[in-house]
């Protein structure tokens, strides 16, 4: 008969870590063998995947994480964290406030882009050419939304993070580190978009698309693309929240008080 102790242990059984008095293991590796020996990015991979990445895999993942750390206080996640930091809460609350803003519209495009690129790759694997697979998938996605996740940017005509990330992927494909199917799928989407928008403003890949290529090429499942972005952006959220705590403001709102209407109770005219 199973004891209550055994039942409780099984209830919380996990392959991620094992903790006993005097012992901490991450994926069966004693923590003392990891400290000072592997980097933080490798630990992320280890905990999520169960093994350690090759050096080039680790470098690709690190590049994606570095690229997504911050995009200024106009990003809702950063703005919310900065406002929260002035409201008498701790840094952990400010970080949580910012992270909780990362939903489908702000922070979810990487996951969605991995899903879209996977759809293209699946169609290609079933016999469609890359161009046809991209067009069919793009049409299906745009029946749900006019936006294609991972393409275009409301600030940048060409996202400055795109090219260096894709150059790294190009080299990784050439060296056999990754397969290149997801890169091909994303570049085909850019080509199809350019044809459809001939004469209009181009819609190149953005940070969400470029990092989606990396996460997909490295074998991360779509939901983890969002999770990894959250880890990355948390660094910027922390930095902005910490900076805000040193500026002496209380109850910071979305606009300076000097530009607020004199009487908030005034009703709009007309």
TrEMBL record:
Query: GO molecular function, one example?
Result: citryl-CoA lyase activity
Is-annotated flag, keyword Lyase?
yes
Write down a Pfam family by its short name: Citrate_synt
Q: Which domain of life is it from?
A: Bacteria
Task: Give the enzyme's EC designation.
Answer: 2.3.3.16
- Please give the InterPro entries that the UniProt record associates with this protein: Citrate_synth-like_lrg_a-sub (IPR016142), Citrate_synth-like_sm_a-sub (IPR016143), Citrate_synthase (IPR002020), Citrate_synthase_sf (IPR036969)
The ranges of region (Disordered) come to 246-270
Q: Which UniProt keywords apply?
A: Lyase, Transferase
The pathway entry for this protein reads as:
Carbohydrate metabolism; tricarboxylic acid cycle
What protein family does this chain belong to?
A: Belongs to the citrate synthase family.
Q: Which PANTHER family match?
A: CITRATE SYNTHASE, CITRATE SYNTHASE, PEROXISOMAL
Q: What is the name of this protein?
A: citrate synthase (unknown stereospecificity)
Q: What is the lineage of its organism?
A: Bacteria, Bacillati, Actinomycetota, Actinomycetes, Kitasatosporales
